[in-house]
Amino acid sequence: MSATLFTGGRFLDPAQDELLDGMDVLVEGGRIVEVSDTPISSSSATRIDLKGRTLMPGLIDCHLHVVSTTVDGWANTMAPSSLIALRARRILETILQRGFTTVRDCCGADLGLVMAIEEGLVDGPRLIISGKGLTTTGGHCDQRARTDDRDSIMEERLGTLGRIVDGVDNVRKAAREELRKGAKFIKIMANGGVASPTDPIHSLQYSRDEIKAIVEEAENAGTYVSAHVYTDKAIRRVVECGVLSLEHCNLIEPETARLAAEAGAIAVPTLVAYEGLALEGERFGLSKEAAAKIETVRTAGLRSLQIMRAAGLPMAFGSDLLGELQKYHTMEFEILARVLPNAEIIRSATLVGARLCRMEGEIGVIAPGAAADLLVIDGDPYKDITRLAGDGAHMAAIMRGGRFFKNTLH
Hints:
The chain is an alpha/beta fold. It has 14 helices and 19 strands.
């Protein structure tokens, strides 16, 4: 792999609150090998003059479902796995063109998609998977209607996001199976959801014993559990059981936010998901029952950001858009900016995301030894966060692992 030397630009270090001038960055063999405030000399490297543009780490989305190819969850499940894989390829390639060089798939994707990216069959972001999400009978990932008497939700299909598992012994086995099949963390449904047909938002899912058993299995494997949670009661419950990744958290209260922060948890707000569902969910197949639940969590979203920030609870960037609604992906930046400073949003999509992916120092930074995941931005994201929005329109170049997937720097 050829070497590349970036020079003449402005350097965005997510740990800082402003751009730095006069930095050179040398990339070789898919990694950053040198970062210097004095000129780097390399006879073998292709020299790229950034001409004042911003060089920053690739973005990280910590809550996506890349096999969710349509809002209608049951239709997604029933589609042939081969069709879902081809649709997922298009989704992954689009995500990378938005500047997201790493994605944490929060249930659904399998090892085959990870391997396809690693082998270069799909020009997508680095993919970190949880395998199928674990759900109770009638839980958030149970897509069966009340009149459906099937025994399962066909978890063998790629388009199915979860698997139904009840009982302590069974959840232990399921967690072990997902880890064996390549999961890097375990995802559970611990609260009611919007897109599921039979569970109200307030419903608590999984017993404490079941959650603790799953947490123990994850810890035994050197990893952690992520939980779908909205209500304050559900959030407190999973934190007390040892869950470290808290997805959504729209209805969190200050005391629970402080408890989560003290426990070392990380929250992943996904506010754009509810904006997308409110705008076009029913048009693309969201049931009327599910649509009626949207406002409960949507209206509380911005308040949750304020509460978590005040409590010192770290937040990673997430989107969680389903199927056709993934076109609203980068709107999340603009929603977050209604409450959070731009520097904190950038850290959520770089440093905090890397921590949640267990890849600190590897992604989300521009430092010697890190993966060469780099973006060249027209403008200053610290001053204008929409430089990261617009589906990559303000990105002159996108590099993952030392390879350009977009390059207009001529």
